[in-house]
Design a protein that fits this description.
There is one protein chain. The chain has about 550 residues and is α/β, with parallel strands linked by helices. It has two domains: about 260 residues, no CATH class; about 140 residues, 3-Layer(aba) Sandwich (Rossmann fold), CATH 3.40.50. The chain is built from 24 helices and 13 strands. The chain has a five-stranded parallel sheet with strand order 6-5-4-8-7. It has a four-stranded parallel sheet with strand order 11-10-9-12. The longest helix has about 40 residues. The N and C termini lie far apart (about 120 Å). It holds the Pfam family O-FucT. Keywords: Carbohydrate metabolism, Fucose metabolism, Glycoprotein, Glycosyltransferase, Membrane, Signal-anchor, Transferase, Transmembrane, Transmembrane helix. InterPro entries: FucosylTrfase_pln, GDP-Fuc_O-FucTrfase. Its main location: membrane.
Length: about 550
């Protein structure tokens, strides 16, 4: 009986052990499932709702697949460096894929909440407009030269660029041999650069061989010849140059143009002359190899952060002094700018009402105003921004508010080391050329003021396919900014909607170049026109003819 009573116990103990093991396995399984659920929720939430909590301001959202592919292609082709980050940047400042920053979705948090990535960066439709700059069937090689045209350019880089291209057209009109133009060394910037320091001289000569004969220097036997110095009349047409200027060849072998800016009409010139201006500007007049290489390097490094805005922040000392704009400045700063204006002889207007200037939209946006503007458009705080500018007046003092909104503010000085920029330092035109290249290649270009560079970049971007260029309506914006400053309006959805509505049609879409303002006369009429190089349509951009149209046209013949 005792043996019979003892048999069940081992089995009973074994059964209990099995039950305990199964219970533990079931508990573990439940824990694993719960953990996976928590992790999946974390992964879904992190990209959009947690980005703003990151301590590192240089951690960016994922770029589009197209930008990734383009960057990988560039990295494979270019061997300019072993790593994309310039040597002086810290890991915190490195692009996201090098700093191992977490990736986010393509939704960015803007002023109006979650704005679609595509809406912020989508390019305007080019409506099938493409460059058409080839001369007509009756266009011939340059006629026998009647003399030599010397050109003294004036102004900053982009004012000189436009003037050089106009002088190419003038040389064609008057049958002149063009001597490579002399750059302005006496302007505000005191730049000693020669033509070949800024532009590719040989390419310029060769690219125009079928249009105008260009030589590097005046022949020695003519160096002592009598030269007639001419101040060509502003915005002059074909008749002025053919009749009045070309007649000077009867007495002189050398004509010297004292200035080059705005000496040729914007409109009503023969189509071949207009197309020549575009070929000169967008084909022949390219930057020197060292500037091109450095410019592309800056673009590549900026592109590593993803889609970016190039902001032409025209808030430098010379601009503020010239325009008389002092909003947001101290009395000491305003007086310093007034003194500079008084002491600059070739600035004609001395007494300027700063308040009136600003209310008319004649002043550049301040860095603080730019921050409000970008936020109103919907660009989030982690948007990469390239500052295309010289030294900002007041430095960090005036940049603090913009930087607090948009911490990823880059510049050539931040993207490149001191050693890399050394060949261009102390040469304003060469430094401006680097900014020009990055601005033309940016995903979005925004100028704070419609100066020479802003207009030149806008025109170039139009020529290259109407790349997105947002032109602030400063007059309308000032009214909004003043209300915000006075506490009558708060930043938020209402302001954002208003800013977006104002700029809906100011983003670089194709349109014809604007003519003179109605009612203006004389020089004011020409001055009110949109400049040729701001918008090369219709002269240098034509509608692409689709294959279907070609086929239907052929079947009708």
């Amino acid at each position: 009986m005792k043996e019979k009573m003892q048999w069940p116990w081992p089995w009973r103990r074994r059964k209990v052990v099995v039950v305990v093991v199964l219970r533990k396995l079931l508990t573990c399984a439940i824990c694993v499932i719960a953990l996976m659920g928590l992790l999946s929720v974390r992964v879904q939430v992190f990209p959009s709702s947690k980005v703003s909590d990151l301590s590192d301001p240089y951690k960016l959202p994922t770029v589009t697949q197209q930008h990734e592919l383009n960057y990988q292609k560039l990295s494979a082709e270019k061997k300019w460096t072993q790593e994309l980050t310039p040597p002086h940047l810290s890991k915190e400042q490195a692009p996201p894929h090098l700093s191992k920053a977490p990736l986010s979705s393509h939704k960015l948090n803007g002023a109006n909440g979650s704005l679609d990535f595509e809406k912020l960066w989508k390019q305007p439709s080019n409506r099938d407009f493409v460059p058409c700059v080839q001369p007509g069937s009756n266009y011939t090689a340059p006629d026998e030269s009647r003399g030599y045209l010397l050109v003294h350019t004036n102004g900053g880089l982009n004012q000189m660029r436009a003037g050089i291209c106009d002088m190419v057209a003038v040389a064609r009109i008057i049958n002149a041999t063009l001597v490579v133009p002399e750059l302005d060394k006496r302007s505000f910037w005191q730049d000693t650069s020669n033509f070949s320091d800024v532009f590719d001289e040989d390419h310029f000569i060769n690219a125009l061989a079928n249009d105008v004969k260009v030589i590097k220097k005046l022949p020695k036997d003519l160096s002592s010849a009598t030269k007639v110095v001419m101040h060509f009349r502003s915005w002059s047409g074909l008749e002025y140059y053919r009749d009045e200027i070309a007649s000077l060849w009867e007495e002189f072998q050398v004509i010297r143009a004292a200035k080059s800016d705005s000496r040729l009409a914007n409109n009503h010139l023969p189509p071949d002359i207009q197309k020549l201006r575009c070929r000169a500007c967008y084909k022949a007049l390219r930057f020197s190899p060292k500037i091109e290489a450095m410019g592309k390097l800056l673009v590549d490094r900026m592109r590593a952060y993803g889609p970016f805005i190039a902001l032409h922040l025209r808030y430098e000392k010379d601009m503020l002094a010239f325009s008389g704009c002092t909003h947001g400045l101290s009395d000491v700063e305003a007086e310093e700018l007034r003194t500079i204006r008084e002491n600059t002889a070739y600035w004609k207007i001395k007494d300027i009402n700063a308040t009136e200037q600003r209310s008319r939209g004649y002043c550049p946006l301040t860095p603080t105003e730019v921050g409000i503007f970008l936020t109103g458009l919907g660009y989030p705080s982690n948007t990469p921004i390239y500052i295309a500018a010289g030294e900002i007046y007041g430095g960090d003092t005036h940049m603090a508010d913009l930087r607090s909104r948009y911490p990823i503010l880059m510049s050539k000085e931040k993207l490149a080391s001191v050693e890399e920029l050394e060949p261009f330092t102390n040469h304003a035109s060469q430094m401006a050329a680097l900014d020009y290249i990055v601005s033309v290649e940016s995903d979005v270009f925004i100028p704070s003021y419609s100066g020479n560079m802003a207009r030149a970049v806008e025109g170039h971007r139009r020529f290259l396919g109407h790349r997105k260029t947002i032109s602030p309506d400063r007059k309308a914006l000032v009214r909004l900014f003043d209300k915000i400053e006075k506490g009558l309006l708060m930043e938020g959805r209402k302001v954002s909607n208003r800013i977006s509505e104002i700029h809906k049609k100011l983003q670089g879409s194709p349109r014809r170049r604007r003519g003179p303002v109605s009612g203006t006369k004389g020089m004011d009429r020409f001055r009110s026109e949109e400049a040729f190089y701001v918008n090369p349509l219709p002269d240098c951009l034509c509608k692409r003819v689709s294959e279907n149209v070609n086929a239907s046209t052929a079947s009708m013949r």
